[in-house]
Each structure stands twice: as C-alpha cells, then as structure tokens.
Design brief:
This protein is an all-alpha fold. The chain folds into two domains: about 10-245, no CATH class; about 250-450 and about 485-609, no CATH class. It is built from 27 helices and no strands. The radius of gyration is 24 Å and the shape is globular.
C-alpha cells in the first residue's frame, strides 16, 4: 500500500532547510564582508605606499575605497538583524507577556519590512534615474544605488529565513500585512493632519524602538514615513541621501579600527597590556579592579571601540574578579564602566563619527580625548578604591618584572604612535593612520602565529561590525536631514536660552539633551543626529567647538551605562550571563564617578569660554 505525503515530516524538513539556508547565508555574507574589508585595506595601503615610497598617487584609490565601503555596508546589512549588531531597544519587550511579545515582534518585523522595501524601491528607482560614469573608475553611477537595493533584498531574505527557522511564519505574514496597513494609514491621514515631518519621523522612530526593531531600520522607516506629511525625501531621494551620508573617506577609519581591536586580542598583544597593568597597579587596594581600569586605558589606545573592550574585559577579568571575592554584578559593572574610556582616549570611533557630522578637527578632538580620558580614569580609580572588595592583592612587582612587562607591551604602544602622532602632525590622514594601524596589527598577529584562519575570522568579524555601523550612519543621514529642514536646531536653541544665556546655560541645556538621548539612543546614532545641532549652538554661545565635542562624546559614552539601552551593560551581560538589571544597579557608583568627571570637564570648558 502506497503511503501518502507526510505533512509533519515535510514541514520539519522545510524548517531544517530554512535553518541551513539561514546559516549558509550568514556564513557567505560574513566571508564577503571580510573579503571586502581586506580589499579596502589593500587599496588604502597601496595608495599610502605609492605616495610615500615613490612620490606618486594611486589613481582612483579614494573612489574605489568608498565603493568598497558601500558594498561592505550592503552585503553586511542582513547581519545587523540579530545580536548586538542589531542595536535593538528590546529591554521592555522582553518583559512583556507572550501575546504582547508576539504582537511586538510582528510590529518590529513590519519596521524591517518597510525599511527593506524603501531600500529596494528607492535604490532601484535611483539606479534607473542616475546616469553617467564615476570620475575615476568609469563605473556606472547607478551601480552604487543597486547596492542598497541588494541590501534591502537580502535583508528581507534573512528575515524570512529567520522566522521560518523559528517556525514563526505567521509573524512574517503579519509583518507584511502590518507594513502595508500602516503605510496606507499614513498616506490616508496625511491630508487631514498638520504635523511637521520631523515630528512624524520621531513618533514612528519611538514606536519602532519601543517594539524592539533594529535601530538602523527604525531610522530608515521613520524617515520614509514622513514623506506623505510634506517630507522632502521620497524613496529615491532618501536612498541617495543615505548613500551620501556614508560616502565620506574619514569614515573608512571605522572598519580599520575595529579590525585593530580584533587582531590585537587575537595576537596576544592585549594580554601583554594586561600583564603591564598588573605589574604597575596589581599590588594596590582593589588591585585586580585597578588593573582592569589601567588595561582599559592602555587598550583604548589600540582598539578605539568600547564594545570590543567590554567583550574582552568581560571574558578576561570577570571570572578572576569573582574568584577573588568580588560580587559577580560588581565585577561586571567595573568592566562596563571602564569600557567607556575606549571611545574617549584616542583612537576613537566616536570622534570619527562626530568629525564626519560636523566641521570639527579630528586632530583636536583626539588631543582633547586624552585629557578627558585622564579625568574619567582618575574618577573611576577613586570609585574602585572606595569599593574595593578583593582581599588577595597581587604581590608588588619588582623593577625587573615591570621592565619585562613593559617590553612585552611595546608592540601595542606602537599603535598609539602610528595613529595619534601620524594624525596630529599631519603625516597621514585619519583613514590612512587607521589603515597603517590595521596593517601593523596584522603583522603582530601573523608573527604571533594565529594562522590565516584566525586572520580571516578577525576580518569577517570586523567587517560585519563595520557594516552595521555603516548602515546606522547611512540611516541617520535622512533622519538628520529632516531635523535640519524643520529647524529643530532652532527649537533646541530657544529652549536652551530659557535655562540662561551664555556658555553655562547652553552647556546645561545641551547636557540635559544628551543625557536624555543617551537613555534611548545608540551612541553612534546620537552623535550623528545631535552633533550637527548642538555643536553650532555651543560655538555660538562662545564655547570652544573642540571642548564641546569632547564633552558631547563623554556624555553619550556615559549613556552606554544607563537603562534602558545601556549597550555596554548588555555586552557584559551577554558575555557573562549576568542579568542586566543586576548590572544596572551595580554600575550606579561608577556612573556617579563618571558624571562627576563630566561636571569637571564642563567647568573647564565654561572657564575657557
């Protein structure tokens, strides 16, 4: 007797097939990101070598680098749907009951569907409208917009495979219907409502964040939602604006600094920094916690990424801190708090983003970051000493041990010379300095014997992280454009004057805005959205632009410790398995120390004004 089809078995095979396809897609995209990052590094290094070695340039090198960066963003976009790269504000959603959580997931997926649809339609339309060839490479200009259409298509594919793998195809169907329904409702209501486009975008963005949608897609969907209400960015213009926001040569330093952090940890150079820090302060009260702090200071000069340092510190120090008697939550809080230094002490990805969004000097910001980082480190050292609990300090290192530890850390210190000295003295551009640092760290990793497989993994990870940051930069551009068109800067300036005229009143107002933004916005998004608004306001009030830029970054880095977003706390929680709520409570004393440091920096800026 012939058996009929087994629907249960067929369904199981389909789910398994979706899971395998999802894994295959992620693996391929990570590999492509790693390859594109390698080509980007090769391109910039070749240009540097030709200019300094042979006195000539590499024709089309800068244009090729920008095209490679856009391709990196496009192919890495689907990887920003899951994990820390998604930058989801899902703390509240995680506490909702099952049914409410299911509705929130459908709404979050609807935001992704809308964003992907904008990229597909807007990218395709712009590709057809834009003619001509690129100046140096001779490639059709429309191809750049095709990259964003590809990003939208692969993002939709990744979302569909994820829901099929989770056996939640109903959520995907609901998301498609909700995206269509919400879009129709916005178009139908627009003629009857007199609302500023930027307010519509802000409300949609708030809703998207509340249901836990990925931040870059929230910004894309919110900017497009404003179009029926008089927004000047329909699909094609929105994609063009986003592409323009990401097409800045300075931003190419971001993937290189991320690569430096990954290779530094893989090569063992980061471990050498730990040994040096332990030799210097391990014998003091709270010695291991102070070692953690000093390691963050030293590691800051290499990675430029607070997230990278938080992950490294959580893996390296938390188990040992706990073994020596520190409460697990306290140990995690120390790691999260000390990781704020990495985007303040140069090199700093945050300063790169700020310089790209404003006309501030990256060299001046980096120098200011050294001073601000010192103040923050001192404040944290005092807090750690007051709360020290470990009862087994390290024996005091002798002079010979310190010399040995210093010699072992020298290769890592070479990075600071390459980056800061190269930029400050005008020897190389910021992007070239970052590329040289990446090449230098690659040599360290190969000499350490990590093998080509380890190198490939580091490139793939850095490429995926850079793509997520690049997507956020691109998504922030049209949103920031709407804020500018509706003169949100003028409204903020008017509100600031209510708190008092002059530098002090403006500083107070700007810090309140930044603290509020840090509660709900990712650090990078806040810099890109608020930097162009607040920096001119501060300069007009008589403050030095560089001083204020440093304060802005310090303020937003502190936001990495505050609920509900608190990205540094969540990174530590994900690595250690500790509950975020316990970490948020434990980090309060260190948060107070950092706010004290911020107040001191503001006093200094006001006195110099």
């Amino acid at each position: 007797m012939t058996r009929g089809p087994d629907p249960v078995g067929d369904r199981t095979l389909g789910v398994r097939g979706a899971g395998r396809a999802r894994t295959f897609l992620q693996t391929v995209l990570r590999a492509v990101c790693g390859l594109l990052l390698a080509l980007l590094l090769l391109d910039v290094m070749a240009a540097v070598a030709l200019r300094y070695g042979f006195g000539s340039g590499l024709f089309g090198a800068e244009e090729a680098a920008l095209w490679l960066f856009l391709a990196l963003i496009a192919f890495g976009a689907p990887l920003a749907l899951d994990g820390p790269l998604a930058m989801r504000f899902d703390v509240a959603v995680a506490q909702w009951p099952g049914v409410a959580r299911a509705y929130a997931d459908a709404l979050a997926d609807a935001v992704v569907v809308s964003s992907a649809g904008v990229l597909i339609a807007g990218g395709s339309e712009a590709a057809l409208q834009i003619g001509g060839l690129s100046p140096a490479l001779g490639l059709p200009e429309g191809l750049r917009f095709v990259l964003f259409a590809i990003a939208g298509g692969t993002t939709l594919l990744a979302l569909a495979l994820r829901r099929l793998d989770e056996r939640r195809s109903g959520t995907l169907v609901a998301a498609l219907l909700l995206a269509a329904a919400i879009g129709g409702a916005l178009h139908a209501s627009a003629p009857h409502l007199d609302i500023a486009p930027s307010l519509v975008a802000a409300l949609v963005a708030a809703g998207g964040l509340l249901v836990g949608a990925p931040l870059p897609h929230v910004l894309f969907a919110a900017a497009f939602a404003a179009a029926p209400f008089g927004g000047v960015l329909p699909g094609a213009a929105l994609v063009a604006n986003a592409m323009s926001g990401a097409s800045k040569f300075l931003l190419l330093a971001v993937p290189f600094f991320l690569l430096v952090g990954g290779l530094l940890a893989a090569s063992g150079a980061a471990t050498a920094l730990v040994r040096l820090a332990s030799a210097l302060v391990g014998h003091t009260r709270g010695g291991l916690a102070q070692t953690t702090l000093l390691t963050s200071v030293l590691f800051s000069g290499a990675s430029g990424s607070s997230i990278a340092n938080a992950a490294f510190g959580a893996r390296t120090f938390v188990p040992e801190l706990v073994r020596r008697g520190t409460r697990p939550a306290e140990a995690g809080a120390i790691i999260a708090a000390t990781s704020t230094l990495d985007n303040v002490i140069p090199p700093s990805i945050a300063f790169l983003l700020l310089a790209s969004a404003t006309d501030l000097s990256i060299g001046g910001l980096l120098v200011g970051g050294f001073a601000a980082g010192g103040v923050m480190a001192l404040a944290l050292a005092v807090a750690i000493r007051l709360r020290a609990r470990d009862s087994v300090p390290e024996p005091r290192a002798c002079a010979a041990e310190r010399r040995t530890a210093f010699a072992g850390a020298l290769p890592a210190f070479g990075l600071g010379i390459i980056v800061v000295a190269g930029i400050r003295f005008g020897i190389v551009t910021t992007t070239e300095a970052a590329a040289l640092a990446a090449a230098y760290t690659l040599c360290l990793a190969l000499v350490a014997g990590i093998g080509w497989r380890g190198v490939a993994d580091a490139f793939a990870q850095a490429g995926a992280e850079a793509a997520a940051i690049g997507l956020l930069i691109a998504a922030s551009a049209p949103f920031a454009f709407l804020l500018a068109v509706d003169d949100v800067a003028g409204a903020v300036a008017g509100w600031a004057r209510m708190l008092g005229e002059g530098p002090v009143g403006v500083l107070l107002a700007c810090n309140l805005v930044l603290i509020a933004a840090g509660l709900v916005l990712d650090i990078g998004a806040a810099i890109l959205l608020l930097g162009p608004i607040l920096v001119p306001l501060a300069v007009a009030a008589g403050l030095d632009g560089t001083d204020f830029g440093v304060i802005l970054v310090v303020n937003l880095m502190i936001g990495g410790l505050t609920p509900p977003v608190g990205i540094l706390v969540y990174v530590v929680a994900s690595v250690t398995g500790l509950p975020p709520a316990a970490l948020f409570r434990a980090v309060l004393p260190y948060l107070a120390a950092l706010l004290t440091a911020l107040a001191l920096l503001c006093m200094g800026a006001a006195l110099r004004a």
